Amino acid sequence: AVLGFAVGLVFWAWAASWAVFQLWTNAYPPLIGLFGGVWVLAGPLAGLIIRRPGAALFCELIAATAEAVLGSHFGATVIISGLIQGLGAEAGFALLGYRRFGLGAALFSGALAGVGLGVGGILRSYAAWTTQAQTVYILLAVLSCIVIAGLGSWLLTRALVRTGALSSVAAGRAAKRI
Questions:
Q1: Which is it for the CA torsion 135, 14, 40, 111, positive or negative?
Q2: What is the Cα–Cα distance from 65 to 120, expressed in whole angstroms?
């Protein structure tokens, strides 16, 4: 829950600066998908750190709820987005049997969370776009989530393990055995 709330603060700050990113994509709106990966960071990060079924979904929901409570201009819809994205992140670890927690698992979890981000974005905001624009948006969202949420969470987990901050959770205990 603490991890989810901390990432929720990041979500809130990201939402507060969202208008800047929208300005960059006025010429071709589907490019907005490139900036969405931050919003799925909580799920892959929690899966890598906690390594228990439900951790990715729970953390993504807590982060989205924190963003909503702190006053995101997206309102309570971020909680629904968190559910969809969290299910994607969780599916990545579930499909690996909750037995792999390396870079590949992080990237896979990020990619599936990105599918949730893309599909949720289209259902919520971009339904009027052409099929081609929607496809580009989903592909860019998945790419963003692979890099930011997948690779980013893996790098962040490794950095936190090295500090000893995760010694009481699964990721820290696993590092001691290596």
A1: positive
A2: 16
Burial 110-141 (b: 16+ CB within 10 A, else e): bbbbbbbbbbbbbeeebeebeeeebebbbebb
Segments in the chain forming alpha helices (H): 2-16, 18-24, 42-50, 55-70, 77-95, 103-124, 131-144, 152-163, 170-177
pLDDT in tens, the chain (178 residues): 888 888 888 877 877 777 777 778 888 999 999 988 988 999 999 999 999 999 999 999 999 998 888 887 777 888 999 999 999 999 999 999 999 999 999 999 999 999 999 999 999 889 999 999 999 999 999 999 999 999 999 999 999 998 888 887 777 777 665 4
Token pair belonging to 71: 């006053």
Give CA angle at 50 (45, 51), nearest 5°. Answer: 95
Residue 88 φ then ψ, to 5°: -65, -50
Contact assessment for residue 79 and residue 65, using Cβ atoms and an 8 Å cutoff: yes
Which residues contact residue 153 at a Cβ distance below 8 angstroms, ignoring those fewer than 6 apart? 41, 44, 45, 48, 106, 109, 110
The conformation of residue 146, written as its DSSP 8-state character, comes to: I
Entry pTM: 0.88
